[in-house]
Amino acid sequence: MARFYLPAKDWQSSVWELTGDEAHHAARVMRLKKGDKCVVFDGEGRAANAEVAESPHGNSVLLIPGDMCEEKQELAHITLCQSVPKGSNMDFIIQKAVELGVSAIVPLITERTIVRLNVKEASAKQKKWQRTALEACKQCGQNTLPIVHTPIYYNEWIQGQLPMGLRVIASLVPGVRPVRDVLEEARVQNIRKVSLLVGPEGDFTDAETQRALDADFVPVSLGPIVLRVETASMFGIAAMRYALD
Q: What is the pTM of this model?
């Protein structure tokens, strides 16, 4: 069934109105007409059935609210702190991370990151990636919309307000612990908030790795095979989801 996003602040009305991209999706892409059924979610965990009130016209689609959908299991809060890879790989990472149930994504510009963004470009990227996250929510049935933060330089981020809970950095340095062991300890301790820090192609510099360790990130190995950036991110998130949920 078609799914559409309507912010929580708009749920108080007796008739719901889709506008902008959501109205375009409903009217032009899905070609909904009067009486058609759909599901609306608020990005904060709620979803409800709805019915098209009248055939769409103009730039809005009116919906009649229906019964609330069954609430889904509350997942562990996972923040992906991701060095921005080259090309369109960040779009792919965001899409798949949302499908795996992350709660937030922090795009990072590191010393070895090829992409360089000014303030205007960073804002534009954030809006594009947030839309990618929304589309992934609609497709996979996720009712909580993850926050995609504005890209930030690594050194500025690591000195700021970091995510709460267990912090893990995927690392290639010798002597790191297997991710399995670290996550098993987290499961036993019932830790429900965790962040995964993944570096760029070529990994973090030694100085960047040390800054993460100084900020209480636990270095872990994702196995004996050197993974591509996007593979490492998906592997790490999946391992966290399996261990903590």
A: 0.93
